[in-house]
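for the record, two folds in this file. i put them one after another cuz i was lazy. first one right below, seq on top, structure tokens after. the second one comes after a little note so u can tell where it starts
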Amino acid sequence: MSVSKRQRIKAYLTAALVLVLALSLIVFPKETFQASLEGLNLWFGVVLPALLPFFVMAELLIHLGVIQFLGVFLEPVMYPLFRIPGVGAFAVALGLASGYPLGAKLTADLRRERLITQIEAERLVSFANTAGPLFIAGAVAVGMLGLPEMALVLMLAHYISTIMVGFFMRFYGSSQQGGRTCTETVNPPIYGTNALFNARGSTAHIGSLFYDAVMQSLRSLNFIGGCIMIFSVFSRILNLAGLIPALSDFLTSVLPFFDLNQDLASSAISGLLEIDIGIQAVAQAKATLIQKLVVISAIIGWSGLSVHMQVAAMIRGTDIRIKPYIIARVFHAVCAGITTALLYHPVGLIWRQLGLSVLVMAKLSFSQPSMLAILGLSVSMAALIGAIFVLLVLLAYLLNRIVFFWVRK
């Protein structure tokens, strides 16, 4: 089949899919409106307050030169482990702390500033764009499962798998001279404190920087909200059309080894589309706790097509390809599910012996945290991470001055 013919068929299929979706909105107006409203409430009540402080802080730290400065000192740690420059540590740290899609946005920003190569960016986005602890502990363990003591199992499995994915992706593009081709240029590394001032250049006033950071963050978050609403509607339509129940019947018949009941299989398919909807469905499914946790971990590792669309939007305008990211998500889902199954009993035993469940229940007793509570916790976490980065800058500056004085002496 010729390339032009494949492109023509692809265009016809895309148009047909959009047409079917538009007709479904007319056939199921009440259900799609309710699904859209649920997606809007999820974005406004959880996603917006959780991510906005991190987005703004990340924009400020990049344009103030803090990240470029730290990248010089973190290079000896990041490159041997993950074959990523030191500046990538910033994307990993904030991606782990705040959740997707901030890791993808920061990776794209680093690529636009030519601080990393195309291959390095594709390695970085594959494991820097992950779920945050606020989502895993607050939204999943407490809000959806109602089992705060399961937060530790889910977080350990997720972050161990994240490191595994990062190490696995270090071999990606290894044939291209460490990810840097002979025709590709990257801004050269700058040593010492000059990295910070070189990155700032003729930076505008801090007030203008803050305005630009807030506006850019809100634009990105508005798109994320649209993705959540659209995929919420799409998932509801597939349920109403009977496609998800049919696929779940198929899975339960061809995968008897995993002992999946229809509820769990249907929930897993929903999780392929949208992470929050899928996890909520798994939490309500009739299955054993360990089965629920394994499927939830796999869904968190996969993160859903909704998040993948957000990642595709974040990296738009760069040469970062989405295919390595999708492959890494599949690997992450498998690793997370297996790791959860291995950690469930030992971590649960340690948890009960230490008596930590009572403490967590006292601190996370709310089942539906308010928007202000989430915003306050997110601001605190963002401020803490920002303070840590600033302290690292100060320590690195002092170390640089001490070494410089000793060399001159």
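(here's the note) second protein begins now
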Amino acid sequence: MKKMKLFLLIVLIIMLSVQSAMAIPAFARRYKYSCTTCHDPFPRLKDYGDEFAGNGFIEPDEERERDYVTAGDDKLWLNRDFPFAVRFDVYGLAETGGDVKLDLQTPYGVKLLTGGTLYKNIGYYMYFYLFERGEVAGLEDAYIHFDNVFKSNLDILVGQFQTCDPLMKRELRLTYEDYHAYKVKIGDSNINLAYDRGLAFAYGIDKTGTDIIATVTTGNGIPEAGVDKRFDADPYKNFMIRVAQGIGEHISIGGFYYRGKEDRVVDEVLTPGLSNTVTYFGPDLVLNLGKFVLTGQYLQRIDTDPIFIGTASPVTTHGIVGELVFAPKYDRSNTYWTLLYNRIDSGMDAYDYHTIAFSGTYMMARNLRLIGEYIYDLENTNHMFILGLTSAF
């Protein structure tokens, strides 16, 4: 009921505030840019798009007072036209295993997105997942971004986001298949590297080409507040640090470390004394050769007691994500090809996962992609074939 009320409120706001000129997504509409300025193709970001996002979705050289309602107050920057966009995904899926051989996922997902400027060097971004596999999922990404804090290279992000974003951004992938190592939760644990609430700090060292990102999060995802009206389910906070080093123009190597602790929670009741400590660590690599971009991630996860019985032995989980994207004509390509490899090998066999996916994208328009994908599940010897459309407008 709460989600439905929120949905109706958002629809009402959209009906009252959105202008008639809604032909292209919000940022392209705002700055009169083609989608290829930031994307290669959408939603995947190229270097300029990554820089634009890192600036809090602000283009400093293009900011004009006429684009805002200031009311003569130099502390007020209200967007004259409320930035708004929609993403709409539909898929048809056929597979050799399972009870349903043919599934029409139409729609698979509908997102309502907004983002832009709040004030000088302050931006925001959020989206409401209107339908995700048929249910109202609610807010996922939702944060305020402070750029160049104290006129330094420090950025601070406050809100909810994916902890894996500094590693590989799941929302920007071209494939139907996901990056599963970031999503998996072992046993009864609530900890993974997907959505969480907290703070992120990013600092760039220009002289060495080094990026440092640290996060502090609740560690239990983004569920509804409990009976005590608190979002955190236990007294702990989780911490991550990631360091990435550019090597020349084409290579970036990085490594991350994450540590968190959680108490057992059943029906919103905390059980002190039964806890699980989760540690992640691993290297990552990006090799950008223009037409070919290779991204790789290895991670190891260690749970001290993922089933919360007090006498369990630690469980180690190994994860691999490898992605190769080929763009024949760079950002002006009409076709893109993606090879994606997923491997999870856990001490609890139920969480093992092993797939290889081959995906082709054809740009019917700059904001409309036709997707054909084949996924081979090596763990269960299953074949999946996907045909879909992804649009943004």
